[in-house]
Every structure is written in structure tokens, then in C-alpha cells.
Design brief:
Elements: H1 5-26, E1 31-37, E2 42-45, E3 52-55, E4 62-68, E5 72-77, E6 83-87, H2 90-94, H3 96-123, H4 132-158, E7 182-185, H5 187-207, E8 217-218, E9 221-225, H6 234-237
Helix pairs in contact: 1-3, 1-4, 1-5, 3-4, 4-5
Length: 249
């Protein structure tokens, strides 16, 4: 069978986008913040019912790195193995913009996975004739998935400094961690943006499957198009310079 370039592009880019968006969804690096602790400061961490303490014995300043994702947050001391992660909680978890981003990302992953399955069924590289309508429908689902993930990333990025704040005019209100933390986008956001763009590109390429290629006509019956799978016309199949082709996957 002849697999068009648009189908190949879609089948390659759509799964790559799905993997990148999924990686962004499960990693807790959507935003980062850091704070400096002066000499004599304490860092407390530990699970429920237990705790450990680390004290700066020298004049060295400790730098705390706090990162947040959609479902997990982490706290780490820079240049150390001290790190603790926990499910998101408190005002950040209840923030409607975070909940919106979670719902959009989950819907995007489901639609993209469904679209890739439909595209694989439609392309059918093991047969002579692809199911173009099914492949294009899969591409449409992938495009919608890309739009949803882009929306989630845009909402989160636009409100990055205000997510989880009970009173934005007073800054981050969380007595468990030091105040005046500087916020910045983290690596998971960039993975998400790249994955969403690949989803849009792959889905758009699969949408081109709706366009059927033009095949040579049979000389015996000019109104009857001859596709690569047709071998019934001897005037086509016996020509040495025929346009009929066969490609195996």
C-alpha cells in the first residue's frame, strides 16, 4: 500500500505529543519557587506522625526549592539529597484554575489516545486501501486534544503566580514554608507546550487524510478510476511505465 506523507507525519508526531503531555502531567515541576534560609534556620520535613530536623551548623545559607505540579508538590534543599514530595493540598488544590487544568489535561490525554488508536486503524499499512475517514477522525480527536492541553497550559501559566493564594494581595499564605518565595515556570510546562504543539501538528496532518489522491483512469472505461489495489485492467497492468505501484509496510 501507499502510505501518504501526511499519514506518516501524523502517526509519528501524535504519539510523541501524547508522551510529552503525559510526562508533563505526572511530574511536579509546573512551577518552582526558592527561598534562602540564613544561618541557624531549620528545615523540617517528614511524613505524618514523624519528622526530622536539619540545622545549618555553619554560616552557609541554605536554599529551599519548592516545586508544584498538578497532583504533587515537592520540597528540596539545593545541593543535597533532602527531598520530600506529597499530594497537592490546601488552597492550591482547591484553586478552581488548578482543577480546570487537571480536567483539561486528563480529557486531552484520553482524546489523544483514542485518536491515535483510530488513526492506526484507519491507516492500515497492512492492507492496500486505507480507511481515510477513520484516520481523519482520529486526527480530529488529536487536534482537539492539543487544543485542550494548550488551554490548560495557558490558564496555568497566566495565573502561575496567583495559584493557591487565599489573598493575592498578601502573597502566598502557607505557614509551613517560608514567605517571599520567587516563582518561575518549571520544566514540566515546557514539556507540555512542546507536546501540545506536536499533537496539533500530528492531528492536522492526519486530517489531510480526508483528501483522496487522484489515480489514473482505465483506458477501457475513462469514467472508472483505477486505484493501486485494482489489477483488473490489463491495459494498465501491462504498461511498463504505469503509475500503478505497490509498497509493502
Amino acid at each position: 500500500m501507499h502510505t501518504s506523507a501526511s499519514m506518516v507525519t501524523g502517526i509519528v508526531f501524535a504519539p510523541l505529543g501524547l508522551v510529552l503531555v503525559f510526562t508533563a502531567a505526572i511530574t511536579p515541576q509546573w512551577r518552582e519557587r526558592q527561598a534562602r534560609l540564613g544561618p541557624g534556620s531549620f528545615l523540617r520535613s517528614g511524613g505524618k506522625g514523624q519528622g526530622t530536623g536539619v540545622r545549618s551548623a555553619s554560616m552557609e545559607v541554605l536554599i529551599l526549592l519548592r516545586s508544584d505540579g498538578l497532583w504533587e508538590s515537592c520540597l528540596q534543599v539545593e545541593n543535597s539529597e533532602l527531598k520530600q514530595c506529597w499530594p497537592v493540598a490546601g488552597p492550591y488544590r482547591r484553586d478552581p484554575r488548578v482543577r480546570l487544568a487537571q480536567g483539561l489535561i486528563l480529557t486531552s490525554l484520553f482524546l489523544c489516545g483514542t485518536g491515535i488508536v483510530l488513526a492506526c486503524i484507519g491507516v492500515r499499512c497492512w492492507t492496500d486501501i486505507p480507511l481515510r475517514g477513520i484516520a481523519a477522525t482520529g486526527g480530529l480527536l488529536v487536534v482537539i486534544a492539543g487544543l485542550l492541553s494548550l488551554t490548560a497550559l495557558g490558564v496555568y501559566t497566566h495565573n502561575l503566580a496567583r495559584l493557591g493564594m487565599e489573598d493575592p494581595s498578601k502573597g502566598i499564605h502557607n505557614p509551613r514554608f517560608p514567605p517571599h518565595l520567587s516563582l518561575r515556570p518549571a520544566g514540566s510546562l515546557y514539556f507540555g507546550w512542546l507536546g501540545s504543539c506536536l499533537q496539533m501538528l500530528g492531528g492536522s496532518a492526519l486530517l489531510l487524510s480526508f483528501k483522496r489522491p487522484r489515480y489514473p483512469t482505465c483506458p477501457s472505461c475513462p469514467k472508472l478510476p483505477v486505484c493501486p489495489a485494482c489489477r483488473s485492467c490489463p491495459q494498465i497492468t501491462n504498461k511498463p511505465d504505469t503509475d500503478v505501484y505497490e509498497v509493502s509496510c
